[in-house]
Amino acid sequence: MNQESENKKKVVVSGIRSTGNLHLGNYFGALNKFVKLQDEYDCRYFIADLHALTTNPDPTQLHASVKDILAEYVAAGLDPEKNIIYVQSDIPEISELYLLMNMHVGIGELMRTASFKDKARKALGITSDSEEIEKEIIGNQTNNQRVNAGLLTYPTLMAVDILIHHADFVPVGKDQEQHLELTRRFARRFNSFYKTDYFGEPVNFNFGTAGALKVPGLDGSGKMGKSEGNCIYLIDDEKTLRKKVMRAVTDEGPKEPNQTPTQPVENLFTLMELVSEPEVVKHYRDSYADCSIRYGDMKKQLAEDMLKVTLPIRQRILDIKDNDEYLSKMVKNGAERAREHASKTLREVREIMGIRKI
Ligand code: TRP
Prior knowledge:
Blueprint: H1 3-7, E1 11-17, H2 24-37, E2 42-48, H3 49-52, H4 59-75, E3 84-87, H5 92-102, H6 107-111, H7 114-124, H8 130-139, H9 149-152, H10 154-163, H11 177-193, H12 238-246, H13 263-275, H14 278-289, H15 295-321, H16 324-353
Parallel strand pairs: 1-2, 2-3
Helix pairs in contact: 4-15, 5-10, 5-16, 7-8, 10-11, 12-15, 13-15
Tryptophan (TRP) binds at residues 13-15, 17, 48, 51, 158, 161-162, 170, 172, 176, 179.
C-alpha cells in the first residue's frame, strides 16, 4: 500500500429527507452520530430533497425545509469544513446515475421492498398483501398518481446516493437496513454484469448498543416521527417544548410494586435515558418501582433536561437560519466538492456501460 492510500480515510455517506424540521428522533438517531464520525472519517452528508419529491410536497415548503435542515445540520454540530455538506439536487450526476442504475434494477424487487409496500398500502387505503397492492396499482385507472414511479424507484436513488461516493459506511437506522441491502445487491449485480469489481459493498455503521436505540414519541405508541405528530423539534421554543412534554401520554400509575412499566411510561423513561443524568433516571425508576412516582414531576424534569439539549441548538439555528449568504456559500462549496467525486464515478460508469463519445 502506498502512502496515499494508507492515509485515506474511509468514506461515510448519509442523508436525511427534507420533509420538515428535524426532531429529537433525527438528532439522537442520526445527527449526533454524524457528528461523532466527522473527525475520523471522510464524511459526506446531504439533504435528500429528490427523495422528498416522492411524496409530492408543496414547492414552497420543500424549499423552506431544505434551508431549515441545512441550518439544523450545522447547528447540531456538523462542521461544513470537516464534512462535505450538500443538497442532493445540486448534484446532477446523481440523477443521471439513477437513470443508468435503473436499467439493472427489477420492478419485482422494488415492489417487494417493505417501505414501498407500506407507502403504497397507505396511499391506496388497503391493509392487505402484495397481491392486492399489485392488483390495485395495475388494475385501477384512478391510482395513477397515488403511487408514483419515483416512490417505486426510491431504493435505486438511495443506492446511487451511496455508490456514487463509493461509500464504506452508511450510518442509518434499522428502518433503512433493507435499502442498504438492496444497495449492495445492485452493486454486486452491476459488477457481475460488466465483469468488474467497480463498486464495493457499503455497510451500516455499527455504533454498538447505543446505535440500536429507538427514540419514542410522546403519544405513548411507537417511535418519534413527523407523520405521527408526536415530536419534539430542535427548533421548538421553551414554552412549546414544556407544553408537549407535560401533555405526553402516561397511565394511571403503577398498580403494584416492581411492575413492568406500561409502554407510554417506558417511552418516557427511554427519552429520559437520552437526555438526563443516570442518577435522575434511577430516581424515577425507583419511585416507579415503589409506586411513589408522580408523573407531573417526572415530566417537569424530562422537559428541563430536554431543553438543556435543544435550547443551545435552537439558538444556533436561529443565528444562521436567515443568513442566506452563509447558507448559500456553504451549499455551493459542498456541491462543488461532492461533484468532484460524483462526476468521476459517473464518467467511469458510463465508460464501463459502453456510453462513449463517437
Ligand atoms: N431513505 C433515507 C431515510 O428516509 C434517506 C436517504 C436517502 C439516505 N438517501 C440516502 C440515507 C443515502 C443514507 C444514505 O431516512
